Amino acid sequence: MSAVRFFSLVLLWLGIVYALAIAASLLYRPFADLRGIDTAQSEKSLFATETKYLMFSLGRLNYPGPRVIVLGASNAGTGLRPAMLASRLGMPVYNLSVGGSNAHEIGEVTDLALANIPANSWKQTIFVDGIWYGQFESDRRRWPDGQTDIDIEAARYHLYLLDGPAGHIEPRLPPLAMDLAALAMRPFLIGLKLYYSLDPVITDVRTWVLQLLGNKVRVLGESDTLVLTPAERKLAIDDLISRMGELGQWDRGGFDGLVAMAHDISAHGARLIILDLPLPDWHKRAIGYDAEYQRRMAALKMQLCAIPNVGVETLDGFSDDDFFDYVHPRPRVKEQWAQKTADLVAHGHGCVR
Amino acid sequence: MKFDSFAFISFCALAVASLRLVKPGMLRLLLVVMLNFVFVASFFDSLRQALPLAGFVMAGYAAVVLSSRIGASLPLIGVVILIFAWLKRYDFLAFLPPLHFLYVVVGLSYILFRVLHLVIDVGQKAIPRPGFISYLAYVLFFPTFVSGPIQRYEDFDGQVSSPVAPGTTHELYMACQRIIRGMALIGFVTVLTHFLFERIQLRFYGALAASTFSFSTFALLCAAASLFAVHLYLNFGGYMDIVIGVGRLAGLALPENFNRPYLSRNFLEFWSRWHITLSEWFKFYLFNPLLRLMAQKWRAPSQMPYLAVLGFFVTFTVMGIWHGSTRIFLAYGLILGSGISLNKLYQVQMTAWLGKKGYKVLAGRSWYGHLCRGLTLAYFALSIVCLWIDASHAQVLSRFRGMALVFIAFAALSALTAVLSFAIERLTARLSNVPPWMPSLSDRVLPAWTAIQIFLVAVAIFSVDSNSPEFVYKVF
After folding, report:
1. Together in a domain, B31 and B153
2. CATH number at residue A102
3. Whole-model pTM?
4. Within a domain: residue A353?
5. A109: closest CA of chain B, how far (Å)
6. pLDDT tens digits for B104-126?
7. Residues from chain A contacting residue B166 (CB–CB below 8 Å)
8. pLDDT in tens, A160-197
9. Could you tell me if residue A74 is inside a domain?
């Protein structure tokens, strides 16, 4: 067999194997991943992780019309549910929040969202950025390798330019081609999906083994009844301290990033509501971070409010019992979060011009 | 270009196709040079970054031309090495002014080996002086540019000047197998080993920083050292698989760099199985001349084994220093040199005590073989700690308690590896009776099976949720 014939046959077989794999991959939730965008549902999708899901889903923003886009970290994603908000606001709501993201990464998500929304719909777009102090973790601490999770995914699949002509992350493909790219990638995501599917099993086994060895371990998850023990609260606070560093080590980067993002959204003609999300009081008392963040945000508020189409609002009125851990709301209060947020979006008065 | 990137695969496909199409001659040499330039250019962000490397290549050719006229003199070789060491910013040349711009030295070490080989062999009239185009095709040859293997010029020239054999289906399949295996190692397996190693290394650093030399510090050192050795082997081996596979498809038989080094029963054997072309290079151009020189000075034949001990010490110390420009690599060189010279000295003494026959009988004993294998692999794993430990932690380790920890780790790792070696041998003996899991495939099935393997490796590469680690030897 000549080399040409050998490699032609290899390519032919590769095409056949690939086509069969795509067909096989469609047996798993063939259309579920093609509707809306809600990163909180990423675990159930073939993409398994929030960033991967987001990178392949953003093309779905490419249609004319009004919409609300939720930005932020996991507390925004958990608390600001698209369906609950959409029914109150009367327009589609997309959750683009990414767990553990800081201001820099949220800025990247905003860039990508704006790149996918048709220019004639920018003015009908409302961004709701649910913020808390955790988002102002410096890039140096949050991304020691200099790459955000979004950057890594962008580089991995070559679907995005990290430094596009406009100086920020940009899609390489037109939005319509993104769903095709997602389809093409499906066979390659199965292995990763299997790995992430095993993750809860591994956690359960690990917990079981640790419990067997006499350790008091429990897995924390969304719950209406779970109450943190003092030890668990301390663990959470210690984790935040190791994450955020000393107050004196906070740099301006995150706050400057928020202002830059507000300018960017405003320049596109879209509206931005910066929504200060609530925290349990025990959390605020245990650590001075929230107070410091509130002080800095108060100093920044005038500057933010001076930007056209930008508002700064506070989501408040929640007690310690409304949170199942140090920052995330219980399932039962999500409707209240949605109602209050919808009211603030409709009649916000955080910025008095 | 990363070796598991789409850009590299596309480049290789194009390179292989064009090299197979173009007939031997000047056109083919020019094609190789052009491919070399495209590949090498992918490592630079600007032309300026490439200037030092380009300058070194030009200086190398000047040295080759000069050696063809005046012979391979030591000062000429010395100047080439000096330029290399200056560009690599070796500590001992810190007094020389540096270049005041950022530049990239990827591949420079391996260019040095090829240039010195040409300077010496052309100077000794062992090979004809290559023309400039042939020189560029050889020293920058794209599959071997980053980290070898170090092919001899006469082999390279002979292969590039010959028509590419069409190759049987089985040969094409085997070349693809090497590439697929290399891709799987680099894009999947070493991602996992690197991930694990980094976590253990971090914990080991934490334990060292706390200066708590407890059992966990010892266990972490053993784990990190063994895991890095495995990672290095798989990483370098994977790279070699790809390079050799691509070479075969292009009709070039590149030399092998590894021959199951984990089977070695002593350090001397280890270095004839690990990074073979580098060891061979040092044997040809440092050890042999050094031994000849010493033999001329001390003519007593009874002294020869001891001169070899000294020769090994010097050769391996230099080889260690070659790996890097800081003091830690000097330590690495001394550790390698001590290991191999002690090994040789031990062999000399044992032969003197037991006689050749007696020593051979002892060496043939199974338990002795496993013990020696354990000592060899443990020594190697602990010596290459120098390749991953940072200066501050190395300092902690070099203190008395740190050294004690290293010695205990050496004893424990040796014992563990010996037991493992014994267990694997037993298992292998049992499994040798089991029929192979896959029947031998006919030529008609090979393209389909290759396609399936390519697809599975692609799935595996995309299944690990992090990018592949840097090729370890790229920095040397």
Report:
1. yes
2. 3.40.50.1110
3. 0.82
4. no
5. 20
6. 888 899 999 999 999 999 999 99
7. 2-3
8. 887 777 677 888 888 778 878 888 888 888 878 888 88
9. yes
